[in-house]
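Crash report, auto-generated. Payload:
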Amino acid sequence: MNASIPKLEFEHVWKRFSLARGRELIAVQDVSLFVQANEFVSLLGPSGCGKSTLLMMSAGLETVSEGVIRVNGRPIHGPGRERGVVFQSYTLFPWLNVAENVRFALLKSKLERAEQDQQVELYLQRVGLREFAQAMPNQLSGGMRQRVAIARALAAQPEILLMDEPFGALDAQTRLLMQDLLLQVWQQEQTTVLFVTHDVEEAILLSDRIYVMSARPGRIKAEIPVDLPRPRSLLETEALPRFAELRQQILALLRAEVQL
Amino acid sequence: MDKRPSLLELRTTIPAHWYWGAGMSLIALFLLSWVILSGLGLVSRIFLPSPLAVGQELIRQIESGILWQDALASLYRITLGWLFSTLLALPIGILMGNFHFFEGLFEPFIDLVRYMPAVAFIPLTILWLGIGDTQKFAILFIGTFFQEVLMIADNVKTVPREWIQVSYTFGLNKWEVLRKVILPAALPGIWDTFRITLGWAWTYLVVAELVAANVGLGYRIMRAQRFLETETILLGILIIGFMGLVTDYLFKLTYKRFFGWAIQSR
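Recovered output after restart:
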């Protein structure tokens, strides 16, 4: 594969919503960005900055008003199996058990039954939930449900994992554990991730690069490379002086943005 | 501070013996007042026969086979009438809940018809269909279908959008999403709609039988009215109530059995 072609690329992408009386709202204004293969990139910004809209557009679940989104250099048309999505809300199907939920990702896979079983088991193991394979979603905590959702998205073996504030609904402690787990899983999988968040520390800890966005209309305000060594972990990485510097830099950018 | 919890706190559960005790007491009080009012001769038996008289009427109807005959006729009508309505309401409701086009197509017409009182169609249906079973099916259909369609459409719409979106990302097409996600997700709600609409069907059935029929639980009540057989009327009402209760309970029981996951997941 040609290394110069990014895995995911936005070229002058706009999103407009039409409102009543012919007025329109510009949710995303002229966004160009890219994610290289095996790169972890975050979209960071205040609520209403259009970051989730960007993510949904790259998933093919939201239309693009103007501009092009490319995967491996080819424009996308609708959703595809090469792009997996993890949502903020719980999206496990409550009538299926944990293993059946993960297997759901393989409905259109050409793998044989036995290979599918292996795949389901492998990814449940990756997120540390192998012994919960037979549990029903409503028996799981919020953090466990999101772990299953991550396992399910990974089981389809997408080329890009799109994550829309996946830990946004979790309590602070669970959130930290999930960040550590995601770091581990990502380091094992070496997959490409586009991650949406409004949490500055989370973005720095996880990402190779961060796009900081501004709101109304949603634009890219800055691109921050995160030059912290890998492998990272919550305790060690956040203790680095460089972590604090990056945090200051990004907070200053966002402070100019959010005015009460 | 140790304060004994009050039975009347906003949205607070109370001990089971209080909860069930209260409900049973009210029923007992109701029966007791019936016994006292009729037993002490405070009210003429033409207006309110004693529970004993109603019990004797029950035995008489069982022995002569009338009860069985009436109940079967009514059950047959309600089952088929409700099934006709449901078999049509199910696909149309599902289409309306999923496709904006079908919502646009059906909703104006359904809104127009559903405020027309089903009961007022009785003379018309007799004119068109006579007083046989077909006319009962028609009244049941008019009474339940138009509400049922809208309720099923709403059941379908409660399926979270993200569940549909996540299925698309796994490569499913819209028909697969419909079959594998939307239908299983909406089924518990639809089952509850079945339970509720069947309750309405009972009401419309009895109304239809009261006006024109020669067999059935409603017919028995109408006939008894002519001869002032008040205990037959009361028995008829109690039996219809009881049968409604049983069908309702059956639906609740099957719901728990099939859709246990929907009860616990908020």
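Post-recovery validation: The longest helix of chain A spans residues 172-189.
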